[in-house]
Amino acid sequence: MKRSREQAASELFAALYPRLAGWCRRLVDDDETAHEIASEAFTRLWSRWTSVAEPRGFLYVTAANLVRDHWRKRERRAVHRAGTEAAVRPHTEQSDPSVRLLVQSLPERLRVPILLHYYADMPIREVSAVTGRKEGTVKADLHAARELLRAHLRRTLDHTP
Fold first, then answer.
1. Pick from 78, 75, 5: which is nearest to 45 by CA?
2. How is 84-102 classified by DSSP, letter by letter?
3. How much is the pLDDT for 35?
4. How far apart are CA 132 and CA 53, in angstroms?
5. Residue 128: is it exposed, middle or buried by C-beta count within 10 angstroms (0-12/13-18/19+)?
6. Spatial separation of the C-alpha atoms in residues 124 and 107, rounded to whole Å
7. Are the beta carbons of 138 and 128 closer than 8 angstroms?
8. What is the dihedral of CA 113, 119, 122, 126, to 10 degrees?
9. Any residues with CB less than 8 A from the CB of 49 and at least 6 apart, and which?
């Protein structure tokens, strides 16, 4: 039995790691960080291997949380650096919005379905199973997230010189 679990874990890794690492790469813009996040997601899966019903969903949700943590750490470092710099430069981030940053700014209940559905290419049925929400709720969350993103982009574009 132990051999078959090891075999299943090995097959799962071979099947999902490249795609998970690629997905992370699109979210963090760095190969090394993407591989670290994907590896950590698998490490966390292995530690719960016997209790995880849906390994693929677990991996993507875990990776999404690790990506969020990555961007929070980078943001804290940037804020700290900006606070210690002597020269004050004009803030231009608002005039050039990044979809990734906009998605990261969504509340978690909206961000996770967006990441799973649009970035991990999971069908709504699978997002529903992974998140434990009804399909109708997932659809409503996706709609609400798109509306928030659309409104933010409109505001940003309206204020662009």
1. 5
2. H-SSPPPP-GGGS--HHHH
3. 95
4. 12
5. buried
6. 19
7. yes
8. -20
9. 5, 9
Q: Report d(CA 117, CA 136) in Å as an integer.
A: 14
For the record, the structure tokens of 127 come out as 């997002």
pTM of the entire predicted model: 0.58
The full DSSP string for 87-145 is SPPPP-GGGS--HHHHHHHS-HHHHHHHIIIIIS---HHHHHHHHT--HHHHHHHHHHH
Q: Which two tokens stand for residue 113?
A: 């379905």
Contact criterion met (CB below 8 Å) for 66 and 60: no
pLDDT tens digits for 99-139? 777 888 888 888 888 888 887 777 898 888 878 889 999 99
145 touches 106 (CB < 8 A): yes
Would the CA dihedral through 156, 24, 37, 42 be positive or negative? positive
Where do the domains of the chain lie, and which CATH numbers do they carry?
Answer: 1-89 (no CATH), 90-161 (1.10.10.10)
**Half-sphere exposure for 154 (CA within 13 Å, toward CB):** 6
